[in-house]
Amino acid sequence: MKAITANRLIDGEVVFWKAGAWVEGFGDAQLFDDAQDADVETVVAAAKAQPTVIVDPYPIDLAPVPGSVDGGLAPVSYRERIRALGPTNEPTHGKQAVGGEVIEALRHAAGAARSTGRVDLIRRK
Amino acid sequence: MYLYDPIDREFLIDRSNEFRHQVARRLAGELTDDQFKPLRLMNGLYLQLHAYMLRIAIPYGSLNARQARRLAWIARTYDKGYGHFTTRQNIQFNWIKLKDAPDILDALAEVDLHAIQTSGNCIRNVTADPYAGATAEEIDDPRVWSEVLRQWSTLHPEFSFLPRKFKIAITGALTDRAAVKVHDIGLILRKGRDGQIGFEVIVGGGQGRTPYVGPTIRSYLPAEHLLSYVEAILRVYNRHGRRDNIYKARIKILVAALGAEEFARQVEEEWGKIDAARANLPASELARVRAAFAQTNFEALPAVSETFEAARAASPALQRFVRNNVKPHKQSGYAIVEVSLKAIGQTPGDATAEQLEVVADLAERYSLDDLRVTHAQNLVLPHVKLDDLPTVHAALEAAGLATANIDLASDIIACPGLDYCALANARAIPIAQDIAKKFADPDRAEKVGELKIKISGCINACGHHHVAHIGILGVDKKGEEFYQLSLGGSGAEDASIGRILGPGLSADKVAPAIDALVDAYLNIRADDERFLDTYRRVGLEPFKEAVYAQAD
Q1: Is B460 exposed, middle or buried, given 0-12, 13-18 or 19+ CB atoms closer than 10 A?
Q2: Cβ contacts (< 8 Å) between A82 and chain B: which residues?
Q3: Cβ B52–A14 below 8 Å, yes or no?
Q4: What's the mean pLDDT in B396-406?
Q5: Taking an 8 Å Cβ-Cβ cutoff, which residues of chain B contact chain A?
Q6: Phi first, then psi: what are they for B54, rounded to 5°?
Q7: Does A119 touch chain B (CB under 8 A)?
Q8: Mean pLDDT throughout B178-198?
Q9: Is the separation of the CB atoms in B509 and B551 below 8 Å?
Q10: Which of A25, A43, B57, B446 could form a disulfide with B125 if both were Cys (CB 3.0 to 4.6 A apart)?
Q11: Residue B228: is its pLDDT beyond 60?
C-alpha cells in the first residue's frame, strides 16, 4: 500500500493526498494498493503541478501495524512515521497532539526503512 | 557589546522587506521552488520535517537582555513556546510558518538581530569563546576580532558563493571553548615576542563525513593583517576548492590534498599580491570596534564576598552549583556563571520562552546586560558579582535552570536529529535523554567527572560526535536506527578525532553501553584522570570488552 505526502508551502505542515485535496491527518490519507502504481504516478505528477500549494510531493510505502486488529496501516519508514506524528521528544507537539487510534497505531508500529523522500532530498543536493 | 549604527539598521529593514516580497512572489507562483529555495536559505529559513525552521545568527554567541526577550517573544508568538540553541552559538525555531517569516525578520531587526549567513555557501556566523571579556586567561578579547570579521564578511560579494559553507572560530584563551581546531579557519590570539598581539592561524579542520584536526599554517600573524590574510585564504579556497563533489567541497579537503605546507605557501603567495592598505582594517575603525567592548563597568570589589560565603556554607545545592557551573572571572569579586540547558530528561539546548525571560532578567540585573551562548548548547552569565551569586542561583533553580552538570556526563550535546531534521538518519534527542537519566544522581555524575558525550543524527556531525570523549553517531542500518560509538575525541585545545569502538548498537543498547564504558573507566582510572586521559593511556580494548562482552 502507498500514500502520497508533501509539505504545505505556506506553513510547512505535513500533508497527505486525498481525492484531489491535501489533508493534515495520516488517517485521512487516500490509500493506493499495489495494483494502483500508475495512479500513484499520476497523482505525484498532478501534485508537482501545484507548486503554490505544496512542495516536494512523493509516495510513501505503508504496511500493516503488527498486532493491529483492524488492519491499521503505518508508514514503513521511521522518518515518515515521525512526519505523521510529530517529534518523539515532545509528545504534545505536532499532529500527535490530537491523540486517537490512528496516532496510537503509528506510535506502536515497529521497524524502519529508508524514506523515498529522504533519498530524493539527497539526490537533489 | 557592539551596537548597530543607523546604516546597519536601515540595511536590515531593507533586507527584511526584500524577503517579504520574495515570499509574496513565491506564494503567488511568480517564483518556482528552485528559484525561491536559495533566497529563503539566505535568510536562514529551512524546510524541515514538520515545518520551516528559522536559524537566527547570534554573533559570537553574545546577546543582551532586550534581544533575549525578543527571542522569547518569537518563541511564544510564532513557535510552540521554545527555541533550540545550536552548536554554533545560534538559535533555531522549529515550528515556523513561511507566511510569518518576514514578520519575524522585522521583529529581529528591531533588536539588531537577523538570520543572514546562517545557511548557504558563505562565511557563516563567526563563533568565539563564550567567556570572552570575562576570563583572566585571555590574551585579547576575541569579540573584537569576531566583530571585525562579522562586518567584513557580511554579504561579502567575493565570498558569497564559495564551494561550500565556511566557518570561522576565535579564542583569546589557551583553554579552547570554541573548538577552533575543527573549523574551516580557527584563530587563536597569541602574544608576539615584541609584546604585540597576533593570531595562530589554523586552516582545514572540520567534522562531517571527513573529520580533520586543522593544521597550523602560520604560527603568528600580526593582528593588523587579519583581514588581508583571511582574504588570501578564502581566495585560494574559492579558486581551487572542489565544486564538482559536495562531499569534497570543504576547505579541509583542499588543505589535506595539497598538504598544509603547500596550502600555506599558496596563501602566502596570494597574500603577497593583496594590497594590504586596502584589505586591512584601518586602525581608527579597529579602535572604534574595540571601544564598544571596552565599556564594561566593573566595580572594585574584594576577592571574597561574605554574603556569598555565608550562603554557600548553608547550601549544599549552591556548593554543587559552584563546583560545576561557576568559573573564575578576571575581575576581583565577580564570577562567570554557566546556565545548563541540560536538565535531566530535557531536550539538550532547548529553552522555553519563560526560561529565556528569566535569563534575560538575570543578565540585565546581575550580569551587565550580557548573556552568552556556548557551542555546548548552554548559556553563560559572564559577569556576576559574587555578592549576587546566591540570588542568581535561586532564580535559576526556580526556573529549572540550575542543573549543576557543566562538562559532566549529562551535559550532552545533541543535534535535533530525526525528530526534526530532514537530513537525519536517526534520532539524537531521545538517546541523550536516556543517557542523562543514567547520570541523574549528581553524586555519580561528579564522581565520574568531566565526560563530554556528543550525539549526531547523521554524518554531517552537527552534534560534534567526532570530537567527543564518547561520540555517538546515528546511522540507518538496513532500515533501522543504529548508533556507532567512538572514543577519544576532543574539540578543545587537546583536539583529536575519536576512534570507532565497534559494531553499531540499537537505540535501547546505547545508554547501557555508556554505563558500561563509565564503569570500566572508574575501574581503571588512575588518580584524577579524566575519561579522555584514561582512554589515551589504555586505548580502545578495555572499553571494547566492557561494551561488547555485556552486549553478547
Answers
A1: middle
A2: 49, 418-419
A3: no
A4: 98
A5: 26-29, 32-33, 47-52, 80, 94-99, 246, 347, 418-420, 422-424, 427, 429-430, 433, 476, 479-481
A6: -110, 120
A7: no
A8: 97
A9: yes
A10: B57
A11: yes
Looking at the complex, report in whole angstroms how far the Cα of residue B395 sits from the nearest Cα belonging to chain A.
Answer: 25
In our burial notation (b when 16+ CB lie closer than 10 A, e otherwise), range B230-258 reads: bbbbbbbbbeebeeeeeebbbbbbbbbeb
User: With contacts defined as CB-CB under 8 Å, which chain B residues touch A88?
Assistant: 419, 427, 429-430
Closest chain A residue to the Cα of B431, Cα to Cα:
A89
What ipTM was assigned to the predicted interfaces of this complex?
A: 0.93
Mind telling me how many Å the CA of A57 is from chain B's nearest CA? 12
Rounded Cα distance between B255 and B242, Å, is: 11
Averaged pLDDT, B412-430: 97
The per-residue pLDDT for range B256-269, each reduced to its tens digit, is 999 999 999 999 99
Range with the poorest average pLDDT among A54-68, B208-222, B275-289, B501-515: A54-68
Is the Cβ pair A83, B50 closer than 8 Å? yes
Rounded (10°) CA dihedral B301, B302, B303, B306: -110
Contacts of B430 in chain A (CB under 8 A): 88-89
Q: Mean pLDDT, to the nearest integer, of B293-312?
A: 94
Q: What local confidence, expressed as pLDDT, does residue B400 receive?
A: 97
Q: Which residues of chain A have pLDDT under 50?
A: 122-125
C-alpha distances out from residue B292 to B330, B394, B448, Å: 19, 32, 42
Of A83, A89, A93, the CB nearest to B429: A89
- Cell numbers 525578543 label which residue? B70
Helix (H, G, I), strand (E, B) or coil at A18: strand
Residue B507 binned pLDDT confidence (cut-offs 50, 70, 90) = very high
B51, A83: Cβ pair inside 8 Å?
A: no
- Looking at chain B, how many residues does it have? 552
Give me the residues of A, 8-27, that contact B with CB < 8 A: 9-14
CA separation for the pair B488, B466 (Å, rounded): 9
The DSSP code sequence of A3-14 is EEEEEETTT--E
Of the candidates B28, B96, B418, the beta carbon closest to that of A78 is on B418
Q: Give the list of residues 6+ apart from residue B336 with CB closer than 8 angstroms, or none.
A: B131, B134, B135, B326, B327, B328, B329, B380, B381, B382, B383, B384
Secondary structure element (H or E) that encloses residue B515, with its range: helix B507-524
Which residues in chain A have their CB less than 8 angstroms from residue B26's CB? 9, 52
Residue B61 DSSP symbol: G
* Joined grid coordinates for residue A33: 494498493
Residues of A in contact with B28 (CB under 8 A): 52
Instruction: Give the residue on A whose Cα is nearest the Cα of B417.
Output: A87
pLDDT of residue B477: 83
> What's the pLDDT score for residue B480?
81
A104 vs B46, more confident: B46
